[in-house]
Design a protein that fits this description.
- It is built from 9 helices and 12 strands.
- By secondary structure, it is of the alpha/beta class.
- It has 2 domains: 131 residues, Leucine Dehydrogenase, chain A, domain 1 (Rossmann fold), CATH 3.40.50.10860; 121 residues, Rossmann fold.
- Helix 4 crosses helix 5 and helix 4 packs across helix 8.
- It starts with 7 loop residues before the first strand and ends with a helix.
């Protein structure tokens, strides 16, 4: 879709935000599709998220992505919240309509599922029990995505049990909470393990989990992408489990955002993945 009348603008709001690879991702797509525009990092302090969102339209932005700590608080500042975002309880993307109103969506669950299918085309969410570590915003998006794909049993485990219990009660079947002390036993017949916590990220301690209890055929996924291989993924790979890191989730969640802003649905190419991997 051509936009001869304007320079296209979008960005990502976060605090901090300069670590984000989203500008590299979207600016690659601008170049690939011959569009005149740019995607910029926007360092927005928590108290400024409302005014910042309201400034998108007068400044000519088509929209923005949201990262920590704005995904939940932004709900109060948009005019419409898409059903998926409402169910997750967080917004990852804001689109500015022609009339200046703001629509909040959440593409994280979509990005996660697409990242799995890209690596394992025959993957099925109903292949067996799925263990999900964590009960924060990332977990909400992943769990909803898995449930919508037909997962029959999702075992949710969190160090603070009340968060896991609350999420399980909110989502209902197939999600149920498992006590932290039972986390190792929960792996024994699992078809998939997903880490949605920050454990294993650069500067964080590794996830405390006895992965030797996991079947060797089980898929191990981590939504962390810095480092490219977390301690959990390294342990899983070394014992023969298939593994997937969080980079694909980042790449694929950007596709519907770019489409909504600019009318073009971009692809995740090997060149794009390699370009971003080189910076990790």
């Amino acid at each position: 879709m051509a936009h001869p009348d304007r320079f296209l603008l979008a960005g990502v709001m976060g605090w901090p935000v300069m670590h984000s690879r989203s500008p590299m991702l979207h600016n690659y797509w601008f170049k690939q599709h011959g569009l005149a525009g740019t995607y910029v990092p926007l360092a927005i302090e928590p108290a400024g998220i409302g005014p910042a969102l309201r400034a998108l339209q007068p400044l000519g932005f088509a929209g923005c992505n949201l990262t920590i700590p704005h995904k939940e608080t932004a709900l109060a500042f948009v005019d419409e919240v898409a059903d998926t975002a409402r169910r997750i309880g967080a917004i990852s993307c804001v689109t500015v309509r022609r009339d200046g109103s703001l629509v909040g969506t959440n593409n994280d669950g979509y990005g996660y599922i697409e990242s799995i299918l890209a690596e394992v085309p025959g993957w099925r969410a109903d292949a067996g029990p799925i263990v999900v570590m964590g009960a924060g915003g990332g977990a909400r998006a992943v769990v909803l995505g898995l449930a919508d794909r037909g997962a029959r049993e999702i075992r949710l485990i969190n160090r603070s049990p009340e968060r896991a219990l609350g999420l399980a009660q909110e989502f209902g079947a197939p999600v149920h909470a498992v006590a932290w002390e039972d986390r190792h036993a929960a792996l024994e017949d699992a078809a998939m393990l997903v880490n949605t916590t920050s454990q294993g990220m650069v500067g964080q301690t590794p996830l405390d989990l006895a992965i030797e209890r996991l079947p060797r055929h089980a898929l191990v996924s981590d939504i962390v992408y810095i480092p490219r291989e977390t301690p959990l993924l390294r342990q899983a790979r070394e014992r023969g489990n298939p593994t997937i890191n969080g980079l694909g989730m980042l790449l694929h969640q950007g596709r519907p955002a770019f489409r909504d802003w600019f009318g073009v649905t971009p692809d995740v190419t090997p060149e794009l993945r390699q370009m971003i991997e080189a910076t990790l």
